[in-house]
Every structure is written in C-alpha cells, then in structure tokens.
Amino acid sequence: KLLQVLSVGIMNPLVQLRQVALRPFRPVGASLFNKSALEQKERFGKDQLLLPGTNWTIDQGDNWLVVGPNGCGKTTLCQALRGGAQIIRGQIRYRPDIKPNMIDFLSMKKDNELIQLVRTVQETGGWNRLTDKDLIVRKMFFGDDSDESAERKHEILSDLQIDNLLPKHLSELSTGQLRKLSIAKLVLGEPKLCILDEPFGKLP
Question: For the chain, N or C: smaller number of CB within 10 Å?
Fold first, then answer.
C-alpha cells in the first residue's frame, strides 16, 4: 500500500467531498505521452463514492480517476494527499518510505505560476536570484546535461516531441509546450506517486 485515506474530512466549507467518486482504470495500450491512448480506459472496478466514513487505499501500480462536478473537492482532495490541505477528521497513512512532499503534482495552477515567474523576471530584471539568462528551458527544467540521466532526458523529450525546445527562452513557449515540459520533468523525477490535475489541459 502506498497510502490509505481513512474517513478523511477536509477543512474547507466550500468542498462537498460526498460528491467525489473514485474510479479505478487501466490505460489501454497507453504511454504517458499518448493522450488519445490514455483517454481509452478499461474499467476494472466500480466507482467508489468518497463519503464520510469511507476508506480508500492506493496500492503500488494502481491508477485512479477522481471524478465529480466542478467545486466538489477533487483538487482539494489531491492537495490533502500531499499535505497541502488541513484535515479535520480521519487520517492519511503513508507507507514508511513515502512522505507527502515526495508525491509529485501536476496542475495548470503550477503552469500559471511558472508563466507569472517569467513575467516577473522580465519586468524586474531578476527575482530570487533568477535572471533572464536563467530562463532557458535546458537550465530551468533539466539542469546539467552531463549527468547520468542525459540519455533518459533525451528519450523522454523526443517522445514528447519537445527536444527542440531546450535552447529556447521560456517566454517563447506556448502554454501547451510548457505543459509538456512539466510532464517531462515529472517523469524524470520517477515519483512513487504522481497526481495529475487536468493533465491534458492546454494540450493541443
């Protein structure tokens, strides 16, 4: 078990977790880089409603969809798994080798924060030791290409068809390209648990 969600209540009066459903699935012949393949899902279990008193276990190799109407608490639940939302009842238990900050999270909010960072650096000439020269894709996302993961980086960037972006400045990129770079960086990190919040948002 990677983690267990046990009768969790989240401190947010706008969130109605009773409308959130959990849907197990398997991507059909999919790789992370193939949107159309990932959207074809083989159901292998019934939806579980996340109600007060309900427990949810995520095992190694599991894939889950968190589904529900707008404003029902999907993103807040994902944030709670990473320690980013206050829990007022129940608990989230992690496997001993997993900490909340080891769970990777991909969201459009993070993309927007990156876009705002680029604007801030360009408008002010620098921010938090960053200068405009630092906002090159290769340096900002992937660091030194001389390390042991260089071959792995090239493979992932090629699969996503964004290896040509490495020498570009972040301000030159579309939101879709930024999203693909975020996906590439996430995969390179090889997280034990990965949460994708609207992963195909902004992608063509």
Answer: C
In a domain, 7, yes or no: yes
Start-to-end Cα distance in the chain? 35
- Within a domain: residue 16? yes
Q: Same domain, yes or no, for 94 and 122? A: no
What's the CA gap between 133 and 116, in Å, rounded?
Answer: 16
Q: Is 197 a domain residue?
A: no
Phi then psi dihedrals of residue 57, to 5 deg: -115, 130
Contact 10, 76 (CB under 8 A): yes
Give domain status of residue 167, yes or no: yes
Look-up of token digits 């490495």? 166
Measured CA to CA, the distance from residue 122 to residue 84 in angstroms comes to 30
